[in-house]
Structures are given as C-alpha cells and as structure tokens.
Fold:
Amino acid sequence: MLNRYPLWKYLLILVVLVVGLIYSLPNLFPADPAIQLSSAQGETLELRQVQRVESALEENGIAVKASEQENGQWLIRLRSDEDQLSARDIAADVLGGNATVALNLAEATPGWLQAFSASPMTLGLDLRGGVHFLLEVDMDAALAQRLEVNASAMRELLRSERIRYRNTDVEGRTLSIDFASSEDRDNARRLISRDFPNFDYASEGSDRASRLVMTLSDQTVSEIQDYAINQNLTTLRNRVNELGVAEPMVQRQGPSQIVVELPGVQDTVAAKRIVGATANLEFRLEARNDTPTAETETHVFRNDSARSAELMRDVIITGDSVSSASNSFDENGRPQVNINLDGTGGTLMNRATRTNIGRNMAVLFIEHKSEDTVVTDPETGEETIEREPYVERGLISLATIQSALGNSFRITGLDSPTEAAELALLLRSGSLAAPIYFVQERTIGPSLGAENIERGLLSVQIGLLLVVLFMLARYKVFGIFANVALALNLTLLVAVMSMLGATLTLPGIAGIVLTLGMAVDANVLIFERIREELRNGLSIQQAIHAGYERAFTSIVDANITTLLVAVILFSIGTGPVKGFAVTLSIGILTSMFTALMVTRAMVNLTYGSKPVKKLWI
Structure:
C-alpha cells in the first residue's frame, strides 16, 4: 500500500528521536566554574574551613552557587567564570599552606541524565577559553644529551676491555676521549666503531696526547632531531592527558616547534609548570674514595645546599625507564614517590644494586631552564631578547643499598606533597627528549569564549529562522514537515556529538549553520519532484510515493560526495578545520535520516491511505 510504513519503522524513528532528545538535553546544563579544595596532608577538610572560605568569597562580592564534598575533596561552585581566579587566591589565603586550591569545572547535568551516561559537548579553546602555547625544542641540547649517553656507554665498554682512558669531552656534535698512548687509542677506535657506527672517526695526536674524536654524521643528527620532537610530542600529550584537559591540541609546527592548546585552563602558571617542565631523574652510585676524579661529579642537595656528595658520572638508569609512578606518604607521614620500572630498567637496577650492597645510591633531579636577557645593539640601539639555557642539578636522596632492588622501589626526601605529585606526574608521562622553551603564550579568557558562543548561537538562530520562513512560504504544509524535521535534525546532531565526545569549536558552529541549509536541500528535491509528478498527471498518493522514491538517488549522491569531502578535511586538516569537518559529517548523516525517514513518516501519517483532494505543497 502506498505511503504507509510498517509499525516497526515508526517505532525505530521514535526510539532514535527519544534517544537523541535525552543525549542532547545535557547541553542545556553547562558546567559550573568552581574551585576545588583538598588538604595538603591527604585528609578531608573540615566543614568549618570550607565555611570560612565561603564567607570570605561573599565578603569580596563573589557569588557562591553551591558547595559539595566528593572523594574527600570540597567543590565550591561559582556563578561566574570571571570569579574563578579571584576565588582561588582568596581561598588559598584563607586556608594557607594546609590545603591545595585548584580550578575546576563542575558538571551540572541532572542526575537522571547522568544515569544514561549523558553529558554535554566539550567546548574548544575559542569557546571555553584557555591557553595557547608555542614551544621551541632545543635541538642542540638533544644532541648533547645523546652524546652524553653514548659517552657513558663508551666508558663502560672501555673499562670492561681494560683500555685506559683519561677524559671524555662533549662539544657540539663531537665527542672526544683522551688516551695515554696511541696503542690504547687505536684499540679503542676498533672497539667503539664496531658498536657505534653512526660516528665519523678521527685520530689526533700521539703518545700521551692521543685523542679519539668522534663526530655525529649528518643523517644521525637529523634522526636525533626528528626523534627529539616526536618524543616531546608524545610526552606533552601524556602530560596534558594527566592534567585532565578535555580535547587538548598538541601538534608539531615547522621543524622544531610545538603548539599546545588547553581549553578550559585558566591557571597559566600551573599549566606552564607541568607542560614545560623538563625534569628528569638519574640514579647513580656514590663514588668510592679511590675513584679517579675524571669519573666523578660533585652535586649538592636540593633542599640543603650546604650538603653535597661525590657521584659516579655513569648513570644506572634515568626516568625514561619508569613505567608507572604514584605519590603517597611513608610511615612517618613524609611525601614519597612509588616507582615501577620497565623490564630493561629493572634488570639494570638489579645488576647495579646486587653488586653494590652497602654502598650509597643517589637520586639526582635534573631540570633544564632558561634565562632571558635583553641585549641592546650598541650601534642601532635595537633591543633583542637572548635566551641563555642552563641546567640545574640537585640530589633528592642519598640512601644506602640494603639489598638488591628490582622493578619496584620508592623515592623519599621530597619537600612537599605537591612536589611529590608533580614528580610522579612527570615520571608517568615520560621525560622530554630535549628541553623546550616558551616562545609565545596567549590566553583566551572565558568572557571572550562566552561572547563567541553568543555569536555562534545567534548565527544558528538567524540561519534557522530564514530557512523556516522560506520553507513555510514555499511549501505550505510540507514546509511545516520540513521545519519539524529540521529541528529534530539539530537535536540529533547535538546528541551524536555529545555521545561521541566531539569538541565544538567556532568553525564547528559554522558547520552546523551550513548543515541547517543543506538539511532542507533534500526536502526541496523531494517536494519539487512531487510537484513535477502532480503536473504529469499522477494522483496525489502516487505523486508522493514517486517523489520520495525518485529523488532518493539524487539525494544520496549529493550527500555522499559532500561527506567524502568532509572526511578528507578531517583526515588532513588540523584544529579548526577538523572541528568544521566533524560537525559537517555528522550533520550530513542526521539530515539524510530526518529528510528521508522522519518527513516521510509525517507525510505518511498525514496523507497515507486517505482520500486527498488537494495537496498543500
């Protein structure tokens, strides 16, 4: 029978629309700006402390929406995004050093929607606000670090073969070793060149002035630099994920730069401290009294510069061997970091400690920093900023090896729980293959994000209104069907994006506006086809049936080609282009569903199997 759907098809459409409505509703309840309060000792703050914070906020004109306790932490919801930073500073002053205050976004979705795992769309940097960093990778430091690792391995190799050497020097892309005789140098060259083929070798001097000079080849330099930036990309993504930022962007720009965008982050100081930290750990043995001076280094303690220790230059393992790390407290209530090593790291640690029981082992904290100085050209008077990188090294702990260590152990001697938490985070996410420096920093405030949202919503409303008026004026009753389908299409689009966890950006809103225009395109094809069939003499029921059937191929062809373009944009595009492609792709699929099935269902229910004398189209 013409223009009738079976019951299962009506039920399917109804289920899809109900599910779409449920999962789109959370977007009417955006997250509340909030500050999160937790005790520095790991205990739950008392209610009276939280009440003191609330009173201080109200005295400073900051409206508090609600307070709640969850997982041992207090969350104070605020009414305005612009109050977050001020509220954090006020709370920190009230609680002092006994508590940690952090910025947060508190979910406002009602409980009955959360029961369906429904949540609102995440917003991009341009809508929520946040920070944008441009980072420069120090390629020279990457080469120096690789050469230091090679130098350590070479020294161990020479000692195992009982070949005497004196000094090892690293400069630029060159590593040199001094020997007491030409014979030792030649033997070392044959031995080292076998295991390290990536160097160009040269012998200099003779007798007691013999030296072996090793220079990295051009291909190896290029490989090291590519590895450095790719490893830094991976590490930065891990760190950002640890921060819990929704839909961050970390991508390469040019040969040596990385762009990091963190939506929703307002505490730029904390973000820079985590993202830009180049800290790493080295585990070394304390030097014996008879160890040659060339094989030792002196380092002071981080928390007591008056204390120092002589350490071996050779490194047992670095933080790169850490597979997982967590912060906790020892039996005396002092902060510590629990460490698990990977297979190789566990083997090296066990080998080093098994043969050195009773000897001290040090944990050396290494951090790469830079200092900017303004230099004035004496001739032109032009001022330029020069960055001078430097390295800070300090001992965290120096403990006696009581027994052979394996894959798991702990680090103590940390100053505070915050330091322990940050060190654990850095070790979990991995160390940077080369230091990075902040070249550019841009902050997008929440007020600008709110303005972008208002303009985006206004564009959607204007576009929707114009389409609605056109369809009503052009197609009468069928225009009503198309407009209802258009509203349902927008609901389904928002629901699918929410379910997939897609990020809505300003270009994404442009994609929604374009989708609204394209959504009625299919209806226009169908309705015009129905008009044509009526002019050709078909009955009303036959014209409706033929209109939907014969326009189907054209609609699918047009939408498939657009969908392919959107997929290509998503695969090769970055940032804003991807946001546009995501909404466009989802919008094409939802508009085809609403145009081909939802409007057909409404037409069938209105005109199907009924005597119709005139069709208002």
